[in-house]
Amino acid sequence: MKITFMGAARTVSGSCYIIECAGKRFAIDCGLHQGNKEIEKRNWNFDAYDAKNLDFILITHAHIDHSGYLPALVSKGYKNPIYCTAPTRDLLEIMLLDSAHIQEMEAEWSNRKRQRVGIQTIKALYTINDAENTIPLLATTEYDQVFEPAPNIKVTFKNAGHILGSAFIEIEAIEDGKVVRSVFSGDLGRPEQLIVENPDDFEAADYIFIESTYGNRNHPAEEESLEQLAAAIEYSYSNREKVVIPAFAVERSQQIIYSLFLLSKQGRLPADMPVYLDSPLAIRATEIFRKHPEFYDEQTQEFIKNGDHPLDLPNLHFTESKEQSQAINESKGPAVVISASGMANAGRIKHHLRHNLWKAGASVVFVGWQGVGTPGRKILGGAKKIRIFGEEVAINAKVFTINGFSGHAGQDDLMDWLGTMRGKSVKVFLVHGEAEVQKEFGDLITSRFGFEVHIPEYMEELELEPGVEHAPVIDMEVARPRVDWEYLLKDSESLYDELRQRVKDVENRPWVDQVELRDKLLDVNREIIALISEM
Questions:
Q1: Tens digits of residue pLDDT in 114-168
Q2: The dihedral of CA 257, 262, 265, 269: what is its sign?
Q3: Residue 319 has pLDDT above 80, yes or no
Q4: How far is CA 499 from CA 220, 301, 364, 487, in A?
C-alpha cells in the first residue's frame, strides 16, 4: 500500500491522503490549503492529485480544510463517488457552494486590481458550477456500516464526535493475500462536548493516522468555558458595548448558541442583550443541525424532549443580508455578535472587528484554533494594532480566549483514544498539526505506548507494509522550499541604497512633493517595524 500526504503534513489545513492499494487509487479527505501565500499556492498543484485517476473519495467531515478542494478535483475531471455521512452530505452542499462563491469573488477582486495596472488576470480556483457538479457525487453511508467501494477494500465510518456527522474511517485492504488495517482519525472531538455524542473507540490497526492539533495541551472543562463567556458578556454589557465572537459557521457557531442557551437558563444572559448570528452560512448550517436530531447526544435530546431546543434563544436574530449586518454596527448598546470566519481572516467578522476592536469597553472572544499568520493569531499574540481593510486599528477591546469550546480532542483525549488500541506493532502517523506540537505529542506516544511514530512532510510518498520498513520519498524543495534570507536582505539593502541616491534629487523638488514622498517612506518603515516585531 502506498500513501502520498497531499496536505495537513506539519500544518493544519489541506487534509488529503491518496492511497494506492488493491489495484485502486483513492483519497481520504480533500481539504483546501489555508494559511499564508506559500501554503495556499499548494491549491494550484492540480496535477499532483491526478483527479481523473481517482476511483473514489472518503470524506471524514464537512469542514473546508477537509473537504474544500473537492470542486477543484471535479473541475479537473473527477466523476466518481464521494462517500460521507448524511449530515456531512447536507453540510457539504452549503459549504462547497459558499467556498466557490468566495473563490469567484476573490478572483474578481484580484482581477480588478490587475486590470488597473495592466497585469494578466487569473481564474478562480474553482467556480459555483464546479461546486454544483460536486453535489450529485456525494453518496451517504451510516456509522458502523461496512461497505466495499472496490473489491478487496472494506470501509467503515465511525463516530468521531467532532461535529455533526463527523467520522473517523477504518479501512481493511487485502493485497497480495495480506490484510492491512488502517485508521484515519479525521478530526476527533472531545468527550462530553455539546450537541454531538462522544467519539467511538477502535480496537486494532496496523497504521493509525491521527490528528494532532492540540497534541501538546488540554482544554478547560465546559463549566470553566461558560464562566469565561459569562465574564465577557458581563464586561461588555456593563460598558454598553458589544461582545464580538469570531466563530466558524459549522459546529462552533452552534456550540456558542448552545452555550448562550445554558447561560440564559441560569439567568446570566441579559434579557435585553440581543444575540446576532451574522453569517448566512452559519444560519443555513444551524438549520441542518436542527434537521438531524438523531445525531445529537443524550443531554441535547433530553432538552428537546422537555420543550427546550438548545439552538433557540428568545433574543437570537439571524442576519442574512448585508444591510442587516451593517445595521448591527450602527446600533447603540450591548449585543453579542457571532460571525465568521473563526480566524478573523475573511467574512463579515472583519467589519465587526474594525468597528469594535478600538473600543475599550468591547470584548473579543476567541473560541477556536487561530492559524499562524491569521489576524486572530496576531491579536492573541498581543499585537497593539492590526490592519483591517488597509486601515490600522488599535486593539483596546478586552480579549478573551476560551479553548474549552474547541471541537478538537485535547492531549489527554487523544491519548485515551489511542489507548483503546490492542497490540504494540502499530505505527502512528501524526497529521493535521504544527510541527513543534507534533514532536512533543509524538514523544509522549512513544514513551507511554511504545508505538513507532512518524511525522510526514508535505507530498511525502511512503510504502506501507506491516513488518517491513520502507524509506519515505521526500522532495524537500517541494515540502519546505528554502528561504534565501541572505539574498532578500541584500536586495533590501540595494533598494535602500538606490533610495538614498534619489533623495538628493528629491530635495530640490517642491515641498508638497517631498512631504508626500516622506509619508510613503514612513509607511514602508512602519511595515518594517511590524515585521521586526514578529521575528
A1: 999 999 999 999 999 999 999 999 999 999 999 999 999 999 999 999 999 999 9
A2: negative
A3: yes
A4: 53, 68, 41, 18
Residue 335's beta-bridge partner residues? 242
Phi and psi angles of residue 87, each rounded to the nearest 5 degrees, phi first: -60, -40
Helix H or strand E encompassing 114: helix 86-117
Distances from the Cα of 72 to the Cαs of 35, 110, 434, 459, 504, in angstroms? 18, 19, 25, 18, 53
Contact status, residue 30 vs residue 67, Cβ threshold 8 Å: yes
Using the 8-state DSSP alphabet, how is residue 147 labeled? E
Going by C-alpha positions, the residue among 454, 446, 445 that lies closest to residue 472 is 454
pLDDT mean across residues, the chain: 93
Query: Residue 527: its pLDDT value, please?
Result: 87
- pLDDT number for residue 220: 82
The residues that bridge with 429 in the sheet, in sequence order, are 209, 454
Ordered DSSP codes for 210-244: EE-TTTT--PPPHHHHHHHHHHHHHHHHHTT-EEE
Element spanning 133, H or E: helix 128-134
Per-residue three-class SS string for 55-104: CEEECCCCCHHHHCCHHHHHHCCCCCCEEECHHHHHHHHHHHHHHHHHHH
Omega prior to 225 cis, within 30 of 0: no
Q: Dihedral through CA 25, CA 414, CA 205, CA 92, nearest 10?
A: -30
For 7, the grid coordinates are: 496536505
Q: Which three cell numbers stand for residue 389?
A: 481593510
Read off the pLDDT band of 210 (50, 70, 90): very high
Apex CA 388: angle with CA 366 and CA 382, to 5°?
A: 45
* Phi/psi-derived region of residue 365, left when phi > 0, alpha when psi is between -120 and 50, beta in every other case: beta
pLDDT, residue 82, reads 98
Helices (DSSP H) in 292-365: which residue ranges?
298-305, 322-330, 349-356
Cβ contacts of 524 within 8 Å, gap of 6 or more:
none
C-alpha cell at 243: 461582545
Residue 229 pLDDT exceeds 90: yes
Find out whether 106 and 289 touch, Cβ atoms under 8 Å: no
Q: Please, which residues bridge with residue 154 across strands?
A: 172
The answer to whether 235 touches 363, Cβ cutoff 8 Å, is: yes
* Predicted confidence (pLDDT) at residue 215 exceeds the cutoff of 80: yes
Which helix (DSSP H) or strand (DSSP E) does residue 283 occupy? helix 280-291
Residue 413 has pLDDT above 80, yes or no: yes
CA distance 328 to 336: 10
Contacts of residue 110, Cβ cutoff 8 Å, sequence gap at least 6 = 121, 122
